Amino acid sequence: MEKIITVLQGRKKSIEGLTRRSKLFKTILKAVQEKKAEEVVSLDLKKIDEAVADFFILCEAQSNTQIKAIADNVEKMVKEECNEKPYHVEKSDHWILVDYVNIVVHIFQHEQRAYYNLENLWGDAGRVTHND
Length: 132
Fold this sequence. Notes:
This protein is of the alpha+beta class. The chain has helices at residues 2-8, 23-34, 64-82, 110-116, 118-121; strands at residues 38-44, 55-61, 88-91, 95-99, 103-109, 126-129. Strands 3-4-5-2-1-6 form a 6-stranded mixed beta sheet, sandwiched between helices. α2 (23-34) packs antiparallel against α3 (64-82). The N and C termini lie far apart (29 Å). The model has no long low-confidence stretch (mean pLDDT 89).
């Protein structure tokens, strides 16, 4: 958890907020779903003053290989469709965080997602499930 918090501190959201209809949001969602991410959820953090982003997109993968494939696809598609590179990418043994400042993508194996429990930590956020 300390790694995740450390990565997100020290940078600020942009003034212009995003929505779930924004091109960046839709592209990220399409990229994770294309690589068969499971339990895809977005948390709308805009109304939470302490939040470090407008949205978190969380998903699960079955293996470290799939986690990497999802993260790589997010970076590739966002670069191609939105001409944006991530502000930062953080990798651990069983999760990857891809930070686009206003949207932070968290890709976990199931056990790590349960351990970090971001949905509960940010329980005041508007939550939407994006499973097919």
